[in-house]
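Need residues for this backbone.
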């Protein structure tokens, strides 16, 4: 029998009523759990978080909150193996992909432990130095950051149930805001178990963490001006959230990470078989294979000089065809299924459209050989590679993100056209430049910066140490302009500002220095 997932709100566990949603193993289609949020009073849940969790967190210094994050890290790390197994079972992840999610979560906690220690025994942040604003230095102004008095509502995506939940929560907790976390229902089993362990540990004060296992119901209708909403998911859903009365009428802050057509660029200096060539090849393969391409940071478009279009496409195609696909519980499997039947249908439909403007190098919508899988079971397809001989003839490559193991290779003629082609994606989370030519690299990095939240530079000097563009770094910002959502998360200390109010204070400079010492 599937287990019943509960929500934790108002300081206790609630089993929802009414219609349930069933969570499946996407490799075998075996039912794993059921959940519902019917009958839950979401207004009361928000009130409890604001009135109980908020004051408790704000009473602590940054250093004291950092100690709580350290304790959470130790509690979660002690259960790492259980989390990995749940990620394989409910997320369709290989063991390595599961570790990528689970270890990303705990690593982010540790990163924000360090931020809290650096901020030390204080309750607010000085944002910059004092500024003389009168005729004499006696009258000055400065900016401070203090925690908002609401709740941080986090709506997370299906692809990273551990990392996505903890990365948002760690920043909010350190800033001094209580968290109401809602994972994507289809892969919520891992996030639910992590929540059980967090609650049982009693590390956090009451009200600091609430968890919704299923639909948000009318939760978002009760957001107020001191609350914030952080969302990761589709651009269509983000548009709906931005039309909420809470946002349009009460200016509730909304941070969005949405669609992204990330690019990888090969410099004209890169020779076949060189370290930089191999680095780029490895990182593209990883982004197609890892989590079956279901990563917001995955490379979707690869730009190469025309003379290397065929050779790089052939090399990439050979590597993709060698990937072993099947039950992710099998040790030799390197790519598992998509997370759901709906996700598989969406990717298949998008591939059919893409095929009309490109040349398929490799890929099958109906894999014939799947290791450890009964015929007809699971949400599988093989990695798909498409080649575009004339970049101008395939606008669909720049218009539609296919959230699966799909990548296209395109030629470029000059740097100006290349930058415009990358920008045609409408805004990205991350793009990569692979080159040992300093002039080309500098021109591309500067040219691509306005269209990306993050850039990575690959070269022979970092070929053995780069984590790849698909790895979100907690000390660097995560987000991007335009279709990527226009939001910004993480970034070390920068991440706290979403959960805090920046206020300008002016007055007698000597008193300001005493009230708000550096």
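Answer:
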């Amino acid at each position: 029998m599937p287990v019943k997932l509960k929500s934790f709100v108002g300081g206790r566990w609630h089993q929802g009523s009414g219609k349930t949603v069933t969570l499946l193993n996407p490799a075998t289609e075996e039912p794993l759990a059921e959940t519902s949020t019917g009958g839950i009073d979401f207004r009361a849940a928000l009130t409890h978080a604001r009135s109980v969790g908020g004051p408790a967190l704000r009473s602590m210094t940054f250093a004291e909150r950092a100690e709580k994050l350290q304790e959470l890290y130790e509690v979660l790390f002690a259960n790492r193996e259980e989390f990995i197994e749940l990620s394989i079972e409910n997320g369709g992840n290989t063991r390595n992909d599961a570790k990528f999610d689970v270890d990303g979560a705990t690593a982010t906690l540790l990163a924000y432990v360090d931020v809290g220690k650096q901020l030390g025994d204080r309750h607010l942040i000085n944002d910059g130095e004092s500024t003389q604003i009168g005729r004499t230095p006696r009258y000055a102004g400065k900016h401070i950051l203090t925690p908002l008095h609401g709740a941080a509502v986090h709506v997370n995506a299906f692809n990273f149930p551990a990392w996505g939940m903890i990365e948002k929560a760690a920043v909010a907790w350190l800033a001094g805001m209580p968290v109401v976390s809602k994972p994507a229902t289809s892969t919520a089993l891992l996030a639910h178990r992590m929540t059980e362990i967090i609650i049982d540990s009693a590390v956090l004060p009451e009200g600091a963490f609430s968890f919704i296992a299923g639909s948000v119901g009318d939760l978002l209708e009760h957001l107020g001006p001191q609350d914030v909403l952080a969302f990761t998911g589709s651009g269509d859903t983000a548009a709906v959230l931005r039309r909420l009365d809470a946002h349009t009428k009460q200016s509730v802050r909304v941070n969005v990470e949405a669609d992204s057509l990330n690019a990888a660029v090969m410099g004209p200096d890169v020779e076949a078989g060189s370290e930089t060539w191999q680095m780029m090849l490895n990182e593209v393969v990883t982004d197609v294979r890892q989590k079956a391409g279901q990563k917001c940071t995955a490379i979707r478009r690869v730009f190469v000089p025309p003379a290397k279009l065929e050779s790089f496409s052939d090399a990439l195609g050979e590597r993709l065809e060698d990937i072993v696909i099947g039950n992710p519980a099998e040790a030799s499997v390197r790519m598992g299924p998509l997370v759901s039947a709906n996700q598989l249908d969406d990717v298949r439909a998008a591939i059919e459209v893409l095929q009309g403007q490109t040349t398929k190098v490799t890929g099958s919508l109906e894999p014939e050989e799947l290791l450890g899988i009964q015929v007809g079971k699971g949400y599988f397809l093989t990695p798909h590679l498409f080649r575009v001989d004339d970049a101008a003839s395939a606008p669909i490559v720049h218009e539609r993100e296919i959230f699966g193991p799909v990548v296209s290779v395109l030629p470029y003629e000059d740097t100006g056209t290349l930058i415009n082609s990358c920008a045609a994606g409408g805004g990205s989370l991350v793009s990569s430049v692979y080159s040992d030519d300093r002039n080309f690299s500098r021109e591309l990095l500067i040219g691509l910066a306005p269209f990306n939240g993050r850039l990575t530079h690959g070269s022979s000097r970092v070929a053995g140490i780069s984590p790849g563009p698909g790895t979100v770094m907690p000390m660097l910002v995560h987000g991007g302009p335009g279709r990527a959502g226009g939001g910004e998360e993480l970034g070390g200390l920068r991440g706290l500002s979403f959960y805090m109010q920046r206020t300008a204070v002016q007055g007698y400079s000597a008193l300001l220095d005493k009230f708000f010492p550096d």
